[in-house]
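Entry for the shared binder. Reason: the reviewer on the internal report wants the predicted structure included alongside the sequence.
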Amino acid sequence: MATGNSSTKTIDSWEWDVRVRERNLGKGVIDAKEVERHLAALVDVSEQAETVTYPQPAIGGREE
């Protein structure tokens, strides 16, 4: 969780996770400006990504 007062709080990396970010915004753990700053500071590593394909039988049926 966030610790300290509002000007010097520390936010754990899991609190930025998109799956919990909305809840953290709603609770006041983080605010929209902090999210913007955090996203702007992220390094773009998209050039290092590799495409990985796996069969998705639940989506398109079974592959025989």
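Summary line for the report: The chain has a mean pLDDT of 81.
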